[in-house]
Amino acid sequence: MCTTDMSSPPGIEAARLAKSFHNRTVLRGLDLVVGKGTLCALLGPNGAGKTTAVRILSTLLRPDEGTARICGIDIATDRRRARQCMSLTGQETSLDAALTGEENLVTIGRLAGLGRADARDRSRELIELLDLGPLAGLRTSVLSGGQRRRLDLAAGLMGRPQVMFLDEPTTGLDPRSRQATWDLIRDVVSRGVTVLLTTQYLDEADALADQVAVIDHGVVVANGTPAQLKAKVSAKTLDLTASGPGAFEQLAEALGARQLTVDRARLTVGLATDGSAADVFALLSQLGAARQLVQNFEVHEATLDQVFFALTGHPAEGSKEVVNV
Description:
single chain, alpha/beta, Rossmann fold, Alpha-Beta Plaits, six-stranded mixed β-sheet, disordered N terminus
């Protein structure tokens, strides 16, 4: 887990959160701590409880059991003050298509409790800080998806939140817009804001997160830095590429349960390794006659895809790999 500033409370604290809907238990005692000024990526298969957890932490739902604090404020006993410390940005933008970028920011600032002059000053401050000048005078209806997303993130900062909840902020964006959004999120965290990010893209979590929490069946099953979680599965993988489709099937059969990853499209099978020359040589030697099926091999860092499957038994959405443990 990432280190926290011990002179102040964590940005987010949750203890034993539980929630059920119509006799279906969604959260079963979720525990989570996110340090001040850090980004935590919340991962999990569909139905694992991610959205319910975020809705509880952002005060949109009440838990059946457990406690939660935002910047040290109990969300059950002081919801109003807790809400003043946070913002929530969902998959759909909250912008008015008929207003310009600056008008949207001012309007949201007013809704956040800022006076007219303060809202105007804050909007101009964010436009300068986040390099949104070209969007300020344009109606939101003419902006691209990526531009609207950047403006929506700025809107979430109008009330100067100490904590931001971002629910899959880059879903549907093209690669260039996605990278621009990543840069903006990094900038937000660098300014001391605590961010809880849900995402279906494991590479996004790997690129942005100080901390990754994996939820499955309503509880956190793993929590740590991306490097720490990868080490739970394997420090590295030895990828063996077969010489053809037939050779691939034979190689996969010969390796059996030793396979860590299987990628049929690339004709590649991955094995766990510590990455040392001695370990790689030993693994290749253990192939025996099956070595003739291998065209080439490479050693790679373990991926969060492998961690995700190892911990949940499900491949990540959009993953190209099938992982065996």
